[in-house]
């Protein structure tokens, strides 16, 4: 059947523009997950007083879609206690930032907690289970604890410290400090000293007349009488209870203005340059505001109706200022298999088709940038993956136990090196990429050679292959055959018979192997015949 190119293009355009705005990302406007981008990350996450979990994702990532329900549940459970955020790394403005954060695949989860210096948070990779409970537990464990542990022996000392300032104390029959109390201590740090006292400290319990647990008491300071809280043990009402003596800290804290300096002749010249730069920055800001007005209409945060954004050029930059180091853009990023189960189900079942796996090297420092070879390999494979839609392309981090098993079973290089290989578990073979260069052309040639069955293949150990789930069916993605221009010269063709050109769909891997076997058998037969003729 012949289709009109114009009609197909029109239909595709109609479908594209009919998609809702939320199709650009996984999380909708009403999601409890805070959506950030490269510009708002510093203000909403890095400068925050609270611990955050940040997901780096791509809308086309199947594992990211699977994580969504658990991630949103974790966001609901942590509301008011910590931030649960996500950034779409498939958007062009966000790609350099995602790369600078060491993202090697999707989804990647990182815990970001306030550091000793404001605006310099500590970033850690999250390697736990992808369940709501596991995520909540991991984030709660990283919430800074500013709660004082007070006992009978230390009560007088705690009360005497800043006697005129407000204090609050939770009397509890539990030995651990809850995430709720930690969050309150963060919100009122510097204005209200918050403590926890156990029921075992009987002298203090009797002094305050505590009869049940938990009991929350506010000491306004000075000679004012203590006030007992009688509401629910939840963040919002407890924060309002404390706010009657001191407001909570803004999040993030407002920037402290720098002291003005006297202008010397040199400074006057620099100020003139800065003034010119500031004009350019203002114009850029105005232009960016106008162009992003439509986009920000669908953005959201948990605390405000609209997503706060920063200036595209928030800092005035002069010619004398040092230039920032450019962050490499690794282009389209591949889906990451974080667990051994994901690796097995994707590539190592008895019904799995061909997978191209990139085994990433181990890193002693999770925040360290990727090596040049790894970045080149990932960029090349990301670009090539769009060409070979029938195959699956994945990255395998060193933290996945399956990566170590593959390196050992297949006698691959040490985990300090990047390794690329093709695996066909259904046919029980694999083939390594043994070249030293990871340029796009070199990797593309290798993938084409695997596709055409060229070169030697190694036997995949049976111990690595797992049975396919009985009820599972592997969906095959049909690849559009590549369109090639065919030129036929009738003058150079023998005979006068009319000829006919048949167009066929791309044949399967099994058909390729069958044809290759027949060709080899035919070649051997011809060689045998030639030898007989020579006799």
Report strand order across the widest sheet: 11-13-12-14-15-16
CATH top level label of one domain: Alpha Beta
Q: Which architecture of one domain does the CATH hierarchy give at level 2?
A: 3-Layer(aba) Sandwich
Number of helices: 15
Share of residues in helices:
25-40%
Q: How far apart are the first and last residues' alpha carbons, in Å?
A: 55 Å
Main sheet: strands, sense, barrel: 6 strands, mixed
Q: Could you name the CATH homologous superfamily of one domain? A: Glutaredoxin
Oligomeric category: single chain
How many E strands? Answer: 16
Alpha-beta classification: alpha/beta
**Cα shape:** elongated
Average pLDDT across residues?
Answer: 76
| CATH topology name of one domain | Glutaredoxin
Which segments are poorly predicted (pLDDT under 50) over 5 or more consecutive residues?
Answer: 1-23, 259-330, 472-506, 529-535
- Radius of gyration (CA) equals 31 Å
